[in-house]
């Protein structure tokens, strides 16, 4: 079967992202290319596990691996200390050693949680990401960010920890609910807007949700190539990697304050359009950019309007964003499609800076 | 005041270990050389905090830092999920950002715990180690290993995370209980036995506990230089760093099974002598080596005899050691003072391998 390989090389690890249609049907071959037979903690959730875990376990067992399946409840609430402790205790009970490994089979929650657990158990076990949601395939599985949430905010605890392999099978998208599929597309539009050119042209051809699956391989490849390039230049978010936060300052605040009402990619869709409207008002982004973004996002049914949230809470959420350094919050905005820039705004001026958005 | 600087450079970080007599009295200058004024979580414990925290806070506050002191109960039990969650919650409540930092002021427990917390909060805040026990000064503060314990074993969760600075003030040793001072010397003897030469000659001049303080600067410098050199060659324990585990396979098992009866350095002292006796029995270490080690350790009152522990439990503890890779346990032994070697023993042969020790 055709396979697209995107190499990623950071200071700490070199690995491949492999995009293989029906890749889950030959997963043992891919695993065997990076791990000799060993013990494996296969971490999945209550949605993805029943669909694919048995298939993966059978193949790996036949190939000589000793696999234990550890299942967490589906949903963001599993990115918690409780699940970290539960998984680590299970891995310790299995007597996993440093020559064993962790496979994350699932969406972004499973990838973030399993990646974090793999990074801290015995100070780091080898990790393979098998992302099954579009969001995880284009975004969270690549780049080595792992995380759990705190009551005060998302992803406030975690590590930079690169996997040994990322295996993407676009066939898993066929079992995704429509809303999850659309959500993943939010991050793709973000990448396309940052890259421009042929990638943006591809995105302009997606006019309905049904267009996503036939174009999935091309969309995922373009997104992963871009993300890999950014991560290789800047593993730990000192410079260029900040560009990936486009739409995320408002997005994270909306997601946090919505308390589960918006999925991550939906909140990012809102954030992309709203930050562009804000920077249009400040005359830093050309008029019409926000509408262009909104058209692409609305084509698959993603939300783009700022919900009615208390201004003081939005401000508070932004002030506690991980993107605050010292007393500055760094925003990403477009001077054109494909031309992103950074702008640091002092936290003390944030309320004034947001005024155009809030009056809207 | 005279200062000894030992530079450490790994793939992820370059930093100095500074040995400064009365360094705590000028700590703000040292901190200011690596951090501009920022918020600081000063993590300490109920023993060390009352001695030094006020002095540190006053100096840092005067220099423009905003310091919160976070105190954990003294003792190994603080290397727990409970304290990790408590500290992370406090740091989140303080709204520490990525341009802020963590100072670990205390012994090995504080250094391991605070280092781990610093490594995972916001995926990593800058960390300064200010070790106040001899064990922490010569061993745990240098090299970037952080850890907490699990019910199944010590240091089973953690990270490799290098500090921005290690500041050692030998004056803090004057307030250490005699038992803690002796404990730290166990790791020094380990280093001297691995290095040999002038370092071993220095150690042969320590004939009583009272000899430690006058020679502290020389002993700490030699130990840190050796450890820094090993860590620079092998940050993540693939090869040469394994040498630092000399005495630790038996030592960790004794420490675990003793349930608090032996301090870490005491258990290592037992491990150094016992592993040497074992390898003498296997004719890999020259006869008399264990006695040489025992003489150095007993000079300051350290234990060296194997306590009466159930063999099955000792074996089980060793099998779950982090040093087990695949199905092999790698031992460090001496072919002479200053000439260490590695030997991998299959876990299945471990009982036979240990037979000479157990009969003893």
From TrEMBL, chains A, B:
Positions that bind Zn(2+): 187, 248, 264
Family of this protein: Belongs to the sugar phosphate cyclases superfamily. Dehydroquinate synthase family.
Key words of the record: Amino-acid biosynthesis, Aromatic amino acid biosynthesis, Cobalt, Cytoplasm, Lyase, Metal-binding, NAD, Nucleotide-binding, Zinc
The enzyme's E.C. designation: 4.2.3.4
GO-annotated cellular components: cytoplasm
Cofactor or coenzyme needed: Zn(2+); Co(2+); NAD(+)
Function summary: Catalyzes the conversion of 3-deoxy-D-arabino-heptulosonate 7-phosphate (DAHP) to dehydroquinate (DHQ).
Chain residues that bind NAD(+): 108-112, 132-133, 145, 154, 172-175
Gene3D superfamilies: 3.40.50.1970, Dehydroquinate synthase-like - alpha domain (1.20.1090.10)
Protein name as annotated: 3-dehydroquinate synthase
Main localisation: cytoplasm
One biological process term in Gene Ontology: aromatic amino acid family biosynthetic process
TM region(s), chain numbering: none
Root EC class: lyase
Cofactor, free-text remark: Binds 1 divalent metal cation per subunit. Can use either Co(2+) or Zn(2+).
Pathway annotation: Metabolic intermediate biosynthesis; chorismate biosynthesis; chorismate from D-erythrose 4-phosphate and phosphoenolpyruvate: step 2/7
GO MF annotation terms: 3-dehydroquinate synthase activity; metal ion binding; nucleotide binding
Domain 3-dehydroquinate synthase C-terminal: 184-324
Source organism of the structure: Lactiplantibacillus mudanjiangensis
Swiss-Prot/TrEMBL catalytic activity: 7-phospho-2-dehydro-3-deoxy-D-arabino-heptonate = 3-dehydroquinate + phosphate
Domain 3-dehydroquinate synthase N-terminal residue range list: 70-182
InterPro entries the UniProt entry points to: Dehydroquinate_synthase, DHQ_synth_AroB, DHQ_synth_fam, DHQS/DOIS_N, DHQS_C
Subcellular localization(s) per the UniProt record: Cytoplasm
Pfam families, per the entry: DHQ_synthase, DHQS_C
